[in-house]
Amino acid sequence: NILTHWVPLIDGNRLTGVVAVFHDISDLKRLAATRRDFVANVSHELRTPVSVIQGYAETLLAGALESDPDRARRFIQVIHNHAERLSALIADLLTLSELESGKVLLEPHPLNLRSAVKQAMSLLSQRATDKGITLDTGNIEASRFVLADKGKLDQVLVNLLDNAIKYTPGNGKVTVTAEDEAEMLKISVTDTGLGIPAKDLPRIFERFYRVDEARSRDKGGTGLGLSIVKHIVQSHGGMISVKSIPGEGSTFSFTLKKGGK
Ligand code: ADP
């Protein structure tokens, strides 16, 4: 994967030598392959709900609408679910491409971590209650501040909490904690859910990577949530990591600069 350029050395109008410049293009090739995979994945992900919608709509038009209203209602529900999937997918794709374009301006401010966590939890509390899951702000003291863009921090917290609830069966618990890590604050979202097998952990932040395709889709997952989270955390200068024990639960941790208050 070496590309060679020959550059002539010219003194006045006399050729005095030639320099060979070697470029290692492995990275470029890898990037091109990643992009190709991504386009293929996106097309596949979009095609599935579209074909389902087409199929069910055609069946309804072919007569099911009049002949069997109960069945028609079920079909319309399926169409609705897949339209929602499409819409979630498009929203996540737009977010990712905005983040990757580098055009999104982050406006970091000192933010109260406990309030941000409580706010994110309140958005998801109904879903948690329905599943009998307790949400807990753990040890986060009211004096904890992080330096972050408000909208982006909300998105990280909501995505991680949403996953924690999604992949935790009934009667579990989701806890958010914070601890000092030098000049950073390490924030962890811990659940008592299904956990993630060790072999999947290294790939969990890749776009469209899912431990269990069917399970994730069933639950309305786009497979993009964690890539978005990782992107946001890294663009704030933080790091993200995950630990998990299958059958016991998972902990997603990320670091942010302290907010200086
Ligand atoms: P999805 O939309 O499928 O949830 P994500 O990018 O948010 O996509 O997560 C990728 C995959 O990681 C999920 O499909 C799921 O298999 C796994 N995962 C994420 N969070 C958790 C968690 N808290 N517990 C168990 N598995 C998880």
Q: Report the average pLDDT across residues.
A: 91
Number of strands: 9
Q: How much of the sequence is in beta strands? A: 25-35%
Task: State the end-to-end CA separation.
Answer: 51 Å
Distinct small molecules bound, one entry per kind: adenosine-5'-diphosphate
Helical percent range?
A: 40-55%
Series of secondary-structure elements, N-terminal to C-terminal: EEHHEHEEHEEHHEE
> What multimeric state do the chains show?
single chain
Quickly count the helices.
Answer: 6
Gross morphology is: flat
Alpha carbon gyration radius: 24 Å
Structural class: alpha+beta
Order of the strands making up the biggest sheet: 4-6-7-9-8
Main β-sheet description: 5 strands, mixed
Low-confidence stretches: none
Organism: Geotalea daltonii (strain DSM 22248 / JCM 15807 / FRC-32)
Subcellular location: Cell membrane
Protein name: histidine kinase
Domain Histidine kinase: 41-260
